[in-house]
Specification:
The chain is mainly α and about 210 residues long.
Amino acid sequence: MKRSLKNRRRRTRAPAFSDAATAILDVAERLAQTRGYNGFSYADIAARLGVTKASLHYHFPSKEELGRALIERYEAAFAAALDAIDQATGEPRQRLRRYVALYDGVMRNERMCLCGMLAAEHSTLPRAMQGELQRFFDMNERWLAHLLQEGRRSGLFSFRESASGRARIILSALEGAMLVARSYSDPRRFRVAAGHVLDGVGARGR
């Protein structure tokens, strides 16, 4: 089942970047996760790296290109994390708990899910970035739907709606819980909400 699940999910390869471009993306990602896409400029990145804005434009001619690269890199890293979860254990409940732990780990680092943060600014983002965001969420929903269907067939999960419908609920709940917890600067709010998400399908058992 694990192998077939991986075959059904579209694999995302990590894009290749130079060391200089990677350093730019690292700073931009941190800024985007804490301030949002519209909350930083090339001047902010240049100041943190001690370089000129012209050097940033050499690697990423426009902020839209930088934004797309951020999402593509984040999606590839998330896809790799999902592969690691699949390879570590075949037990659906443990895999779902590890999925939730990915979000908790981001909160512990005082950040937000990059794509969740950008989604809050969806209407002001370039159209190409909007499409990349949807692709990230689609990837997560597909992975969750396959996992939920597997868990229900084995009698470990219980829910009324379709697996894809429950996947949307879980993804929306986790992303929303992060935003609310951030507004209170209280990661515990996220953990409580995440616990209810797991309880909703019977995944917080042993």
